[in-house]
Amino acid sequence: MEPDVKIKSRKTNFYYGKKLALKNIDLDIYSKKVTALIGPSGCGKSTFIRLLNRMNDLIPGARFEGTITLDDLDIYDDDTDVVDLRRRVGMVFQKPNPFPKSIFENLAYGLIINGIRDKAFIEQRVIESLKKAALYDEVKERLYDNALMLSGGQQQRLCIARCLAIEPEVILFDEPCASLDPISTKKIEELILKLKEEYSIVIVTHNMQQAARVSDFTAFMYIGELIEFSPTQKLFTVPRERLTEEYLSGKFG
Length: 253
Known about the structure:
The protein has about 250 residues and is an alpha/beta fold. It is built from 10 helices and 10 strands. The strands form 2 sheets. The chain has a 6-stranded mixed sheet with strand order 6-7-8-3-9-10, sandwiched between helices. The longest helix is centred in the middle third of the chain and has 14 residues, at about 120-130. The chain is globular.
């Protein structure tokens, strides 16, 4: 049985000024599955996932065409609450970006700006989120230390925990392991596999092996177009004629 569709993109075009960056993208993101976006640098992977929580709205001269829905919500409708959309669709970036505050404050901040004032509830949510991000045991004795004192891998898991604290439905990962060592990368990959039990996940990666390890579905993009989309195992074992030499050779740099 095919899983439920969480996000649906239809006839999506996106422009940076006059430049067409994405062309006619039709793509489904399935509920509680991991979807990987792969392809060469500059092919539109990061641009596409930033459409899913309207991060590209912040770019002067950017223009969107088409339809993207989250469940039954047209996220580009004029009446859409963008703040609530970004709560429902969280994002973890390539480089860890913790706030220059304590570990505890990093997670509590999002709850406070969303109007939550109950200290006991905030503390409980912080601990739960750190546990979900497989970080609590490593930091439970230093929750009020500066988050910038953590290692790179720990900082990235902290950013994941910060995302989880506001209870998203979808998590976007934009090359989350690009700046991490192999041990930290393994921890993030294991975490993604665990998180998909509760969340719908989209991950941008240059690493085909990573896509094969963590994703259920894979989309291959090239020069702003969606070339192929299928279950990951099928895509990697039955190459299509339309896939480029870069894909077949694994050269994504």
